[in-house]
Design a protein that fits this description.
- This protein is mainly α.
- The protein has two domains: about 1-80, no CATH class; about 90-310, MetI-like (MetI-like fold).
- It is built from 15 helices and two strands.
- Strands 1-2 form a two-stranded antiparallel sheet.
- The radius of gyration is 24 Å and the shape is flat.
Length: about 325
Amino acid sequence: MLRVTGYIVRRLGQAVIVILGVTLIVFVLEHLISGGIARAILGARATQLQLSDFNKQNGFDSPIWYQYWVFLDHLLHGNLGFSYKQNRSVDSIIASDLPRDVMLVGTSLVLAVLIAIPIGVAQAVKRNRAFDYAGTATAFVLYSMPSYALGLLLIGAFSIAVKWLPANAPQGSTVGSMLSHPAGLVLPVATLTLVTYALFSRYMRSSAIDSLAQDYIRTARAKGLSEKAVLWRHLLRNSLVPVTTLIGISLPTVLTAGLITEYLFNFQGLGLEYYNAATTYDFPVMLGITVLVGLATVVGNLLADITYAILDPRVRY
């Protein structure tokens, strides 16, 4: 127990350092914007007097170290900036878009894991047989295919050819309103699920094959345990270690991995919000989402490391 606690404390300390590094990078990027922050927000026609007033009102005329301190204080209080183009705070934009992203990417991630784990184990058990060859070929095709290409193929097949499903995602402002039109969610969820499944299934297969060659599997079989008990009680836990890492580092994808898919299906989420901010030079929104993605990346890796320590005691050392 002490080893687990010490390991978690060390990882928390490292996570705090990394988070400070992320905030510092974003702060520097904010101050490297061509023409300055005031010019980027007020536009090319702003006068020097307007620029000076804007800098004074927002504290950009203060020493750089003090600006960074204020920047950190705002982040700790959930203030990610203000979008002058949308006349809204960045945190309110994220708060309205994030639930839809959680629904889209979270659903696809859960489905991918639920499909990839049993198929990966089955491929390992039936290695070099027809089922394994078929699964490997399918995973390679899906993994090598860009998400936009897969999405276009699904639209062409199910929206244009047979007209079973709409090509556009539901345009509701809340998760409930979008769930009231589930047919529009099928294609974007399927696109993300298939791409994610291909990656997870390959890792699961490789890990399961490695575990099958270990002594504890032979010992379990020698004790007379059924094949089902050997696979699900002994093989699965040890084979999940690499997949756990993938799940942890997939946490930031809840925020941005759906960018291409959201643009393709016109899904109103943070990915599409980030794209629109980039095309309209809405720097506060871009930087606010960047900070959030950085934090999610650190948290995802931290959760993966802690789960690692639970699944594999050797990691605690």
